[in-house]
């Protein structure tokens, strides 16, 4: 796929058969047909783009812009930029509640999670988290928000590491109240919630493992490759996909047994992984090789 120079994260519009890929350094969003693999458009947003989420009901694409402190809004059908919402310093992670029409954005530079009303494009509340949060996810059944307190702050020339970055913050999505701080291990980078089994999976980058959380405690630890980054759940099978950016692989985990069933070689420095909710096809964004690896649906890749 022709996806641009620094593909980082992506989102899929299942109705329009489109893949939206953020290019971290280029400030662009590449639009690709999931049917043909052809590039359809390039959306120029500017800044430094990170996480991409698609609201399947409204046809809106949301992108965090680290450099400009924005949540960008794009029309999935026309590829037009609809809004730029100021959210705060260094927005990274993003999750959208299609039921409540709100988004939660993690602010690495402010150690906060921000709730945004997607009907009015306004910030509703700011919730303190652990240090320098990156990933954020939502259990759509319980309306619980989980934020990865990574403890890694981007600075000119590299990163500043906070040793206290070792937990997941649980927030009540309805009230904004912090419910718990769950220790998981050094520098959890990303996190994903499975509403089917009420478990949360955190990629613990400093330990090369995935921590499985249930009932506010870690119930299992699954060894994966180096520096686990992007995570995604398959919609029609018990697979958790984990991108290991330090190993150039994707681990496939059986969520029933908490075991790695396959390790797939992908491109260099895989970052995000997006899954088509209809087909189950997964798209791995390989930042250093400027490619996207497509993993087959309905079975192990």
Automatic annotation (TrEMBL):
SUPFAM superfamilies referenced in this protein's UniProt entry, alphabetically: Nitrous oxide reductase, N-terminal domain
Gene3D superfamilies on file: YVTN repeat-like/Quinoprotein amine dehydrogenase
PANTHER family named in the record: DIHYDRO-HEME D1 DEHYDROGENASE (PTHR47197:SF3), PROTEIN NIRF (PTHR47197)
Name this protein carries in UniProt: YncE family protein
Organism: Candidatus Hydrogenisulfobacillus filiaventi
Lineage of the species this protein comes from: Bacteria, Bacillati, Bacillota, Clostridia, Eubacteriales
């Amino acid at each position: 796929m022709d996806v641009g120079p620094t593909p980082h994260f992506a989102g899929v519009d299942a109705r329009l058969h489109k893949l939206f890929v953020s290019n971290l350094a280029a400030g662009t969003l590449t639009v690709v047909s999931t049917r043909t693999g052809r590039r359809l458009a390039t959306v120029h947003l500017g800044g430094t783009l990170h996480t991409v989420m698609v609201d399947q009901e409204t046809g809106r694409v949301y992108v965090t812009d680290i450099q400009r402190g924005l949540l960008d809004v794009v029309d999935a059908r026309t590829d037009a930029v609809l809004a730029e919402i100021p959210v705060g310093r260094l927005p990274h992670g993003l999750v959208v509640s299609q039921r409540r029409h709100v988004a939660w954005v993690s602010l690495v530079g402010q150690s906060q999670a921000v709730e945004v009303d997607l009907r009015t494009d306004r910030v509703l509340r700011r919730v303190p988290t652990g240090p320098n949060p990156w990933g954020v996810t939502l259990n759509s059944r319980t309306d619980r928000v989980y934020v990865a307190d990574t403890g890694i702050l981007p600075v000119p020339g590299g990163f500043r590491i906070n040793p206290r970055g070792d937990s997941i913050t649980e927030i009540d999505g309805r009230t904004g109240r912090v419910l718990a701080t769950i220790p998981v291990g050094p520098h959890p980078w990303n996190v994903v919630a499975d509403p089917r089994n009420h478990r949360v999976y955190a990629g613990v980058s400093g330990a090369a493992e995935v921590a499985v959380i249930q009932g506010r405690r870690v119930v299992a630890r699954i060894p994966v490759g180096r520096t686990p980054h992007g995570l995604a759940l398959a919609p029609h099978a018990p697979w958790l996909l984990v991108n290991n950016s330090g190993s150039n692989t994707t681990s496939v985990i059986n969520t029933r047994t908490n075991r790695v069933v396959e390790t797939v070689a992908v491109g260099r420095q895989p970052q995000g992984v997006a899954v088509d909710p209809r087909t189950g096809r997964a798209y791995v964004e390989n930042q250093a090789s400027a490619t996207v690896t497509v993993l087959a649906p309905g079975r192990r890749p």
